[in-house]
Structures are given as structure tokens and as C-alpha cells.
Amino acid sequence: MSDKDVCEPPSKKSKFMLQLIDKNEIVKEPGMNEIDRYNALMVEEEYTNPLTFWQQQHIQLAYPTLYPLAKRTFAVPCSSAAVERQFSAAGQIVTQRRSNLDLSTVNNLIFLRSIENSKRQI
């Protein structure tokens, strides 16, 4: 029995990864889909910022399905300012005298406060 006769089972992919594969995708190498090509990619340069890799036109064209996913993933702001504002607002609402407020009441008050603040900015 030769090496060619041995059939390896297909590699298991998560359901999420299978949803990313476009059924009409043009495969550049026989038997490889876009995710397999990306996993096999050998990058000569060292990228400290993934956005610089995905901003290259030839990369966007080579991975048309993965590019929008990467764009959405790396567009998440790296700031905790909004969270800090919410904690500050909660700290002003839940004082020593109001420490027994129900959690839903505190959430509603913070929500109303954010609406009030957004109206002031307009």
C-alpha cells in the first residue's frame, strides 16, 4: 500500500469557519479554500499592527471573504472610556444613602442619564 492509497480524513473545521467559506469562491490552489490559503500564508515582513497587513490591496483581493471579517474585528476601539463613564455615573447614583437600589433601577437611571447627556450634545 503506497502513500497515495492512504486517505486522510478531512480536517475538522468549526461551524463558524465553514460559514465564512463562499461556495462560489475561486480557489487559487486545487483543494484549498480561502481559510486554508490564509493559514498556509508565509509572511516575509513582520507586522506589529494587523491593520497594515489587511490594508494592502493584494491581500484584500486574495482574501475577499476574510477581509471584511478582519476589518470588523480590528475596528473595535481599544479604549475603555465609555466603560469608565458608566462606572462614574453609577458611582454618582449609588451613594451610601441609596445603596439599596435595585439593579434594574440603577440600569434605568444610567440609561436615562445617557439619553439626557446625548441631548445636551446636540
UniProtKB/TrEMBL annotation:
Pfam families: Dimer_Tnp_hAT. Residues 47-114 form the HAT C-terminal dimerisation domain. It comes from the Eukaryota. One of its GO terms (molecular function) is protein dimerization activity. This is HAT C-terminal dimerisation domain-containing protein. It comes from Rotaria socialis.
